[in-house]
Amino acid sequence: MAGLKSLAKDTAIYGLSSIVGRFLNYLLVPLYTAVIPAVSGGYGVVSNVYAYTALILVLLTFGMETGFFRFANKTDADPKHVYANALLFVGGLSLLFVVLCLAFIHPLSAFLEYPDHPDYIAMMVIVVALDSFQCIPFAYLRYQKKPMKFAAIKLFNIIGNIVLNLFFLLLCPYIYKVSPETISWFYRPDYLVGYIFVSNLIMSAVQMFFFIPELKGFSYRLDRPLMKQMVSYSFPILIFGLVGILNQTVDKMIYPFLFDDRQEGLVQLGIYSATSKVAMVMAMFTQAFRYAYEPFVFGKNKEGDNREMYAKAMKYFFIFSLLAFLAVMFYMDILRYLIAPDYWEGLGVVAIVMGAEILKGIYFNLSFWYKLTDETKWGAYFSIIGCAVILILNIWLVPRYGYVASAWASVAGYGLITLLSYVIGQKKYPVVYPLKDMTVYLVFAAVLYILSEEISIANVFARLAFNTLLIVCFAGYILKKDLLKVIKKSN
Q1: Which pTM does this prediction carry?
Q2: CB-based contacts of 329, cutoff 8 Å, min separation 6
Q3: Which of 270, 322, 392, 403 lies at a 20 to 30 A Cα distance from 175?
Q4: Helices H, strands E: what count in the chain?
């Protein structure tokens, strides 16, 4: 139980930085949708470029975050030595990536169909290289159980990015109107989308200074045998990481190519991406849980078999995922104002996107059977299967049904690999998950959601009050059924 309390504490701290940070970051969504009209497709450009950078980020980190945790937690390992080798590998790979991309920036921009804006691509190349390298010091902070510093750096980066966006997208246009000569030496009013990338670049560079203590105090000595083992372990993680991120971003990458009119594709992509942001609570909770759960599992594995603990962690993740789902759907009347009204036509996908996020979180929980048994090849198999399903369904259905098909494709892909991971995992590394309890929670949440959807209440305040009553019922059931027992045991 002490282990679960530690996991809960770290999840709360990581969650605070993730939830507060992402909430602050998502405040940019109403800004972007307000200053970038849906019909312009500008937000589609932002979503498209960031989809590519998400893929490259996984490629450059090479699965070394998980590799670092695995080898640093071995009984005969020197964690600093493992950390130094992870830094050398990811740093060298990132530097090579920047040099090659900048050397061929114009052909690369043309290939991505941004021939008029190689500057967009160049900025994001540097950003993704910096972010990839910084993933290893962030992992080291997690290993050292320093969630406060981890959270502080994350929040500083996000707040700084917000301030810069506000400066470039709101303050500068105002100053340019009243006194253009003041800022005309650096500001261009037609460079709207570009300043989003400029803000990101500045903050990624500034963030490096916070890692100076984590980048000194040990020897940067390349250990070839260790590096070979780490690469061998991490390579399958890279493969399923690449395919996994494709599961999340492939629709945004290929979306403009699925329409005869690329501009129409960018417009639809902008609407889909903006409305998907309303599902941020689920993504934030999953990410916070992941930050705490990965070092928790590998650390517990050193102590012996803790399968019962993993089963309980899965149960509580699932319970609070359902609570997050209900909270978002029940307060949609408020959350819709995160985006501009001309994007509201896409709000119907929010419930579907959140369903995909829940499945993604369950799959992440299940994935530790192949990480703990060093059979990471299974992760690659599952990710490839999931990506193939998502890609095929997008290509087949998006031209006919639009972004709704993209959302359902994600549910289908994650649903299939979650099922496969559970079935095979029970043979390779059996864990007795409390499926009966989880099913009861699922049915209860589904009944409450259906009641909210089917009972028509015209007055928005009465509707919010009714939905609040429903969510209090669910929270009360959680408290009575499970949390009170945990509280009593901890005391």
Answers
A1: 0.71
A2: 350, 351, 354, 449, 452
A3: 270
A4: 23, 0
